[in-house]
Amino acid sequence: MTTNKMISTLLVMTTFTSMAMANEKSNTIVYGDDDRVETYQASARDQLLASSTAGMLTNVEAIDLGDSFMLPPKSIEDAMGLCKDERFSDQPSSVVCSGFLVGPDLLVTAGHCVTTQERCDEVTFVFDYKINQKTKRADMIVGKDSVYKCKTLLDAKLENLPGDKRDYALLRLDRVVKNKTPLKFRHSGMVDNKDSLVVIGHPSGLPQKVAAGASIFRNSSEQAYFDTNLDTFGGNSGSAVFNNKTGMIEGILVRGAKDYIKNEDNGCIVVNTAPEDITDKDNLGESVSRITDIPSLKNRKEFMKAAAAGNITEMKRLIDSGVSINIVDEKNNTALHIVAANKNLTAAKFLIDKGIDAEAINLAGKTADQMRNFNGKVNMLIKVAISKK
Question: Contact, 182 vs 27, CB < 8 A?
Answer without folding.
Answer: no
